[in-house]
Write a structure and sequence with these properties.
The protein is an alpha/beta fold. Helix content is 24%, strand content 20%. The model has no long low-confidence stretch (mean pLDDT 89).
Length: 284
Amino acid sequence: MAHHYRGKHNWRSRRLGERLLDALLLGGLVAATSYTLGLHGKLSVTRHEIELPTERRLARPLRIAFASDFHAGPTTHPKIFRDLFRAIDQEKPDLLLLGGDFVSYKAGYARAFIDDLAACKPALGKFAVFGNHDLWADDSKLAAMFEQAGVNVLVNRNMRLPAPFESVSICGIDDPWTGEPDVEAAFHSAQPTRIFLTHAPDGLLFTKDIHFDLAFAGHTHGGQIVPPGGKPVVLPHGPLSRRYPYGRFDLEQPCTLIVSRGVGCSTLPVRINADPELVICTVN
């Protein structure tokens, strides 16, 4: 499918910002030191279980891995990606979902994890949406890299899972704020059981009366820097990103939203009380 680079209007200012940040962070040396000192946080696995209505119970439990917000670049040390893919390999999920913001500033930073991503081969496939940072970088280049690594990029479209999960569709939208989200296209002819993939929780603002059972989002980093027992100091823009900053939310539709803290670091190479995570969700 065609992808278009939609961040060109910000190219000059973002290239300047990249060079400045890279200089301040000593070309990744600060991030390496942060990781070594444990200031990237320690990657953990968070587990959830979802029960479908009796009439739509699956043939067997479906194990989903979800990871988001890699932010490959000067603020994130590449060893965190090795930690992530080692954990995915140990968990042996049926499929891998990826929630966007894979790079900061330029698409080429994805080379820090793309080989591990290509080597990861869950039986039912890999699916991704892009986030605002990906669109600001170069989403067309990223799409080519991801597709070569065997990832199905879902920009306002859905894909049906193979048997015995043929009643399940993975439905992904473009980034809610920077992209051009089209939920009608994303859910068009989707199967009865629908898993919604959106970079930010604010993707739910566009769903209106569309039915889905389970949604995954990132974007918030869980605040990234959080006082002990307190609320995040800074959260991304968007009303639902503030309302649903991290964790599991059982909503009225009925449906469930799971918001991940993500993996990498943005702006500063530090996570405090907001450790990186891999989400494992079992759907029954």
